[in-house]
C-alpha cells in the first residue's frame, strides 16, 4: 500500500500549522475573534434586558407571537457575532490583510447560529435530530465548498427505468426536502392556527373558518413545493388535471362533502365550539374541535366521538346551547293521596330552589323559578313533577337531576310523607255466598 500521498498531505498540514503559529497576524486575528464574541455577548444581553418580550419568559397561556419573540431573543447573540465578523472580514480583505482565521471563525459562527435556530424553533425531538445530524454536515460542506463534489458523486450513482433516470442525489434530495417540508407544514399549521384562535376581537366561528382555510392553504403550498422538488413539471400536470379531478371527485366525494359541510357549519353559525349537541342516532356531547373531515364531540365520560361534518347538515341535530345556555328540566315523583298537596308543593319548591345550580330568586322571572305541579292521578298515589331551570347541561343521574331527587326524598321524609309503592286490596267474600247446595 502506497502511503506517500498521505504523508505528503500530513506534511503540508504541519507546515501550514507551523506557519500560522509563527505568524504574528494569526494572534491578531485570534484577538479580534475573542473581542467580537465578548462584545456580541455584552450587547445581546443589553438588548434582551431592554426589550420586555425577550427578557421575561411568557406563561403557557401567552399569545403564540409572544412566545416566539421570547425564543427569537436567544438568536440575538449569534446574529451580532455573525454580522460583526462579516463586516470585519470585508474590511480586512479590502485593506489587503490575511483573514483566513476570521473566515474559519465565520464558518463556526454560522454553524453555531444554525444550531441555535434548531434549539429555538424545532420543538419535536425527531425533527431536531434530523436537522442536527443531516442539516449540519450539509451546511458544513457548503461553507467549505465541498458540497458540489458530494453532489457530483451522488449524481453518478443512477438507475434508468425506461425514460426515467433516478439518481442517488435525486432520492436523497426528495427525502431530505420532503421531511423538512412535512415538518415545516405541521409547525406552521399549528402556529398559524394558534395565532388565529387567539384573536379575541373575532368571534369563535369566524376564527374556526380562518383556521380551516389556513390549514388547506398550507397543505396546498407544501404539496406544490414537494412536487417541484421531485422534479414533476406542473405545466404538464395541468394538462390532464381535469381528468384526474373528475376521478378524484368521484372517489373522494365523501371527503369533499365533509369538508364543504364543515365550512357551511362555520359560516351559518349553527354550531360552535362548546355547544352541547345530540344527534338523531343518540350520540351526544360537547363540540371540542372542528377538523377538515369531522367534528370532535366529547361525552360526559371523557370519550371523543368523531362525527362526519355532513351529518350535521343532512341529519337531525339538537343543539341544546345554541340560542341560550339556560335549559329546563323536570324531576318526577309520587305522594300518597292523603297528602296535603298545596302545602307540600310550597316546601318542595323551596327545597329545590336552594340547590346552587338551580336558577331561583326574586330577580328571576316567575316562569323560570322552580315549580311543582300535579302530573296525573296514579294507581298508588298522586304523580307530581318539579320543573327547574339551570345554566348549562344536566347529565341527569350524575349531576343536578340526581341531587334534586335526593333533596325531594329527604324533604318528603322530614315532613312525614312517604313515597307510595304499588298496593292492591284483597277482599274475602262471605263463605255462605261461596257454598254450593248439593242435590240429594
From TrEMBL:
GO MF annotations, alphabetized: mechanosensitive monoatomic ion channel activity
UniProt keyword list: Cell membrane, Membrane, Transmembrane, Transmembrane helix
Transmembrane segments annotated in the record for this chain: 26-44, 68-89, 95-118, 130-154, 166-188, 209-230, 236-267
Lipid bilayer topology: Multi-pass membrane protein
UniProt family annotation: Belongs to the MscS (TC 1.A.23) family.
Domain of life: Bacteria
Biological source species: Aliiglaciecola lipolytica E3
Name by which UniProt lists this protein: Mechanosensitive ion channel family protein
SUPFAM superfamilies: Mechanosensitive channel protein MscS (YggB), C-terminal domain (SSF82689), Mechanosensitive channel protein MscS (YggB), transmembrane region (SSF82861), Sm-like ribonucleoproteins (SSF50182)
Main location: membrane
Record-annotated Mechanosensitive ion channel MscS C-terminal domain positions: 331-419
Domain Mechanosensitive ion channel MscS: 255-322
Subcellular location(s) per record: Cell membrane
InterPro entries given in the database record: LSM_dom_sf (IPR010920), MS_channel_C (IPR049278), MscS-like_channel (IPR052702), MscS_beta-dom_sf (IPR023408), MscS_channel_2nd (IPR006685), MscS_channel_C_sf (IPR011066), MscS_channel_TM-2 (IPR011014)
A GO cellular-component term linked to this record: plasma membrane
Amino acid at each position: 500500500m502506497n502511503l506517500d500521498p498521505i504523508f505528503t498531505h500530513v506534511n503540508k498540514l504541519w507546515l501550514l500549522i507551523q506557519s500560522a503559529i509563527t505568524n504574528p497576524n494569526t494572534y491578531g486575528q485570534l484577538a479580534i475573534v475573542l473581542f467580537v464574541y465578548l462584545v456580541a455577548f455584552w450587547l445581546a444581553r443589553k438588548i434582551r434586558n431592554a426589550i420586555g418580550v425577550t427578557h421575561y419568559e411568557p406563561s403557557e397561556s401567552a399569545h403564540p407571537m409572544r412566545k416566539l419573540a421570547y425564543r427569537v431573543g436567544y438568536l440575538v447573540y449569534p446574529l451580532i457575532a455573525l454580522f460583526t465578523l462579516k463586516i470585519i472580514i470585508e474590511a480586512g480583505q479590502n485593506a489587503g490583510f490575511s483573514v483566513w482565521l476570521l473566515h474559519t471563525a465565520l464558518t463556526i459562527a454560522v454553524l453555531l447560529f444554525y444550531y441555535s435556530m434548531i434549539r429555538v424553533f424545532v420543538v419535536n425531538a425527531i425533527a431536531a435530530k434530523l436537522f442536527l445530524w443531516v442539516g449540519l454536515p450539509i451546511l458544513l460542506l457548503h461553507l467549505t465548498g465541498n458540497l458540489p463534489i458530494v453532489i457530483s458523486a451522488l449524481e453518478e450513482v443512477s438507475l434508468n427505468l425506461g425514460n426515467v433516470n433516478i439518481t442517488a442525489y435525486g432520492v436523497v434530495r426528495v427525502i431530505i426536502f420532503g421531511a423538512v417540508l412535512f415538518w415545516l407544514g405541521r409547525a406552521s399549521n399549528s402556529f398559524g392556527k394558534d395565532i388565529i384562535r387567539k384573536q379575541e376581537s373575532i368571534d369563535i366561528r369566524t376564527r374556526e373558518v380562518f383556521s380551516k382555510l389556513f390549514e388547506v392553504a398550507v397543505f396546498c403550498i407544501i404539496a406544490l413545493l414537494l412536487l417541484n422538488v421531485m422534479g414533476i413539471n406542473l405545466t404538464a400536470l395541468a394538462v390532464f388535471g381535469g381528468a384526474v379531478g373528475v376521478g378524484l371527485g368521484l372517489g373522494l366525494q365523501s371527503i369533499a362533502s365533509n369538508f364543504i359541510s364543515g365550512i357551511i357549519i362555520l359560516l351559518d353559525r349553527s354550531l360552535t365550539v362548546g355547544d352541547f349537541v345530540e344527534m338523531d342516532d343518540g350520540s351526544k356531547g360537547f363540540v371540542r374541535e372542528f377538523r377538515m373531515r369531522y367534528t370532535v364531540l366529547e361525552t360526559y365520560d371523557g370519550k371523543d366521538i368523531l362525527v362526519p361534518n355532513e351529518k350535521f347538515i343532512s341529519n337531525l341535530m339538537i343543539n341544546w346551547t345554541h340560542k341560550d345556555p339556560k335549559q329546563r328540566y323536570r324531576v318526577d315523583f309520587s305522594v300518597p293521596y292523603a297528602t296535603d298537596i298545596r302545602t307540600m308543593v310550597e316546601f318542595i319548591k323551596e327545597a329545590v330552589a336552594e340547590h346552587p345550580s338551580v336558577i331561583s330568586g326574586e330577580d328571576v322571572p316567575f316562569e323560570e323559578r322552580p315549580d311543582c305541579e300535579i302530573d296525573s292521578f296514579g294507581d298508588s298515589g298522586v304523580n307530581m313533577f318539579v320543573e327547574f331551570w339551570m345554566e348549562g347541561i344536566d347529565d341527569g343521574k350524575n349531576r343536578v337531576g340526581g341531587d334534586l331527587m335526593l333533596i325531594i326524598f329527604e324533604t318528603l321524609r322530614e315532613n312525614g310523607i312517604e313515597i307510595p309503592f304499588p298496593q292492591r286490596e284483597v277482599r274475602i267474600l262471605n263463605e255462605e255466598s261461596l257454598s254450593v247446595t248439593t242435590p240429594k
